[in-house]
Design a protein that fits this description.
Jelly Rolls, Arc Repressor Mutant, subunit A, ten-stranded antiparallel beta sheet
């Protein structure tokens, strides 16, 4: 029987499975996926050495370091996140990740769909947190609770509560408001988003987005990013990679998963996978427990 997340994390760091690192050395990789819900993914991870190469994803990534020192480069600066501290990464921001000491580090993280944050904010533009490290004294108990009990199922009301807590934390820690933007055409943008998500294998022409939304292509491009934190093209790629991850978990070979998800070939899929998750598909699959 698996232990609850957070039990014996330090012990697990000592006995990690080893997988080759990019420089020919060895780095420990352990990833454990928790219970999620629509728009929410939870993960517990432990690493020794360099964990992730530079990558970006289209969700908010909100985590807390459990053990050791987590270090990552974000918006041109090297950051350090100590045990008990949290971090908030904005969608589509490039970052890497690794251990700040030889002992390695462990953390829990929740990935939050910007659309869910949008709903909690009532359609306002997404908050931007420029300083990603949240000191221990500023970690709200409700935010910590969102990261606990990864094995506990998330019901409908719990999902709404988590979204409200996350949205509140983002607004609390956000930088000074950006320049005033035009009101978002959220209902129209959601039609574009849903069309992509319904079948990400299909690359749709811009004219189809204009037709279903009633917006011109420039408005779609500007406001889609303001609403959801990334571009329509990047959003489609991420949904393709969601399909790939599910198929890999189901045992499908990488070459077949790439084609089934609509990529040109395995090489193209692997490049996109590493740019998104900081690991190759093979290393990602090997690290899962």
């Amino acid at each position: 029987m698996r232990k609850k997340p957070g039990h014996d994390t330090q012990t697990r760091l000592v006995g990690l499975r080893q997988s080759p690192s990019a420089d020919g050395g060895a780095a420990g990789h352990v990833l454990r996926v928790g219970c999620g819900a629509e728009g929410l993914e939870r993960l517990e991870a432990s690493f020794i050495g360099q964990a992730f190469s530079p990558h970006r994803h289209d969700t908010y990534a909100i985590g807390m370091t459990l053990t050791g020192v987590q270090t990552f480069r974000y918006r041109g600066e090297r950051r350090h996140c100590l045990a008990g501290e949290g971090h908030i990464l904005h969608p589509d921001e490039l970052h890497d990740g690794g251990a700040g000491t030889e002992e390695g580090f462990g953390y829990r993280i929740i990935y939050v769909d910007p659309s869910l944050v949008q709903q909690a904010l009532g359609g306002r533009p997404l908050p931007f947190v420029a300083n990603p490290v949240i000191k221990r004294r500023d970690m709200e108990p409700a935010l910590i609770a969102c990261l606990n009990d990864l094995d506990e199922p998330i019901g409908d009301f719990e999902r709404l509560d988590i979204a409200l807590v996350i949205a509140g934390a983002l607004e609390k820690h956000a930088s000074a408001p950006r320049q005033k933007q035009a009101p978002l055409h959220l209902a129209s943008l959601l039609r574009v988003r849903d069309l992509i998500a319904d079948d990400p294998k299909v690359q749709r022409p811009v004219k189809e987005f204009e037709r279903i939304s009633g917006l011109d292509r420039w408005t779609i491009a500007r406001q889609f990013r303001a609403a959801f934190g990334t571009s329509p093209t990047r959003f489609r790629t991420m949904r393709q990679l969601d399909l790939v991850r599910r198929m890999i978990n189901g045992g499908l070979p990488l070459c077949d998963a790439a084609l089934e998800a609509g990529f040109a070939d395995q090489s193209h899929m692997s490049r996109m996978f590493k740019r998104t998750y900081g690991l190759t598909p093979a290393k990602w699959a090997a690290a899962l427990i």
